[in-house]
Amino acid sequence: MVQRIHACSPGVAQRIHFCYGVYLPTIHALRKEYGELLVSCGLIGEAIKIFEQIELWNNLIDCYCLLGKKAAAVELIKARLSEMPSDPRLCYLLKDVFIPRCSLGDVTNDDACYEKALEVSNNRSARAKRSLARSAYNRGDYEMSKTLWESAMALNSLYPGGWFALGAAALKARDIEKALDGFTRAVQLDPENGEAWNNIACLHMIKKKSKESFIAFKEALKFKRDSWQLWENYSQVAADIGNFRQALEATLMVLELTNNKRIDSELLERITLEMEKRTSTRQHVSSDQKPRQPLSSEGANNDSCTGSAHPSDSNVIHVGDSTSSESGMGISRENENLVEVLGKVLQKIVRSGGGADIWGLYAKWLKLKGDLTMCSEALLKQVRSYQGSDMWKDRDRFKKFADASVELCNVYMEISSATGSRRELLAAEMHLKNIVKQGESFSDTEEFKDVQTCLVEVKMKLESNF
After folding, report:
1. Do residues 311 and 318 touch, judged by C-beta distance below 8 A?
2. Which of 71, 112, 265, 299 has a beta carbon 3.0–4.6 Å from 357's, enabling a disulfide?
């Protein structure tokens, strides 16, 4: 199209019919677009010829910089400045007066060029202020960078990336509110900026606003689904607002993206304890519910004798009871689904080899499912994970070992009560005696006393079953 602009055919008489039906840009704009297309294709040499012919000096300078011809770029800039150093007519176009000075600063990394550009433009050069803001950020003067970015965005609020840069500078300067405002303005201009959404979410986390942070993370994940860090933060925020289903699904994504290497044990423990709490509460509520007493025959006879028209209890619909029953069933199904998803997460981890904490959580999950035999095996693996020659010298490690041992022996006693077997009780007795014997140096700890108490209980059960 560009090459055919000056062609003789087709003639004007043929072209004139389409002058109002076809949108054709000006020749200058068309050649500029062609030059930019050549640059995007890597044909810098051909683009230079186009820009020289139409005198697009700024684009020409960029081409020289892309080719690494810094000397040629500096020479061209100085030539333009010598011809038109301060022409006021060019202040509006921002091309031949202070943009060459900004370009000279870009090439030479000299802030004096940007400051001169501001002087020539009567402090109206947004580009010069942006360049000074970047320079201040690079040398660590974040407060100055923030101020310059604010001034630059006041001149041109639609500059791509400007609000994000302002937010980054404000964040470095520890101005949380200004940083949040900058990133918010950035996503208003570009809703698909996943990095900005992520920063907004993190800032809300700092401000302890979990609900707002959850929403922002959800938006960020639409565009950055391969970031395990983002999924991990999302899981924590989801748990903070009580959305444990989303927290577990996010944890599964973290495991998938990191090949099961990134495990948030604290979050999993928090969710497991919540599931235990819900289960125990539901069982307590169901045990407290009593069946409705039927109407006595004496009362029924009295009603019939007096001829009252009261209906019997069997025909009365108790709306409150029905609603609470349906709600309870819904909560129960929700808890069951959460337990299943939690199991998927824990099973995925233990298949790749989990640590002591994970085996303990897996045992709790198995107990929730009612599988005491598998629960005891998981607890046994947890206990063995703590064992070692250094355990009897490490107080903190001994405390964890003792807690896991007591939990294991309690499960052994439950199994024995259910099956009538003494094998589990004998194993528990031997294990606890060994701890008491070797752990005398920790006799002042509460965990050691718990082991002794559990040993007494096991002996009593053995005696009762003898």
Report:
1. no
2. 265
Which one, of 57, 94, 62, lies nearest residue 78 by Cα? 57
Cα separation, 285 vs 66, in Å, equals 73
Q: Which two three-digit tokens encode residue 189?
A: 């201009």
Label residues 332-360 b or e (16+ Cβ within 10 Å = b): eeebeebbebbbebbebbbeeebebbbbb
Q: How far apart are CA 160 and CA 179, in angstroms?
A: 16
More confident site: 280 or 455: 455
Express each pLDDT in 50-75 by its tens digit.
Answer: 888 888 877 887 888 788 786 777 67
H-helix or E-strand spanning residue 334: helix 319-351
Question: Using an 8 Å Cβ cutoff, are 56 and 35 in contact?
Answer: yes
Amino acid type, 282: R
- CA 54, CA 33: separation in Å to the nearest integer? 12
pLDDT: which is higher, 189 or 332: 189
- Report the distance separating Cα 201 and Cα 221, nearest Å: 11
Give the Å distances, CA to CA, from 93 to 87, 100, 104, 159. Answer: 11, 12, 18, 16
- Cα 58 from chain centroid? 41
Q: Supply the pLDDT for residue 304.
A: 38
- Give the separation between CA 460 and CA 402, rounded to whole angstroms: 20
Give me the pLDDT at residue 88, please.
Answer: 31
- Residue 231 pLDDT more than 90? yes
Closest CA to 124 of 154, 103, 149: 154
pLDDT per position as a tens digit, 25-34: 777 888 888 8
For the four alpha carbons of 319, 320, 326 and 327, in that order, the dihedral sign comes to: positive
**Alpha carbons 427 and 424: distance in angstroms, whole number:** 5
Whether 356 contacts 386, CB under 8 Å: yes
Interior angle at CA 82, CA 81 and CA 88, nearest 5:
60
Residue in this structure with the two tokens 């020409």, named with its chain if needed: 60
The Cβ-side half-sphere exposure at 331, using a 13 Å CA radius, reads 14
Q: Above pLDDT 70, what percent of the chain?
A: 78
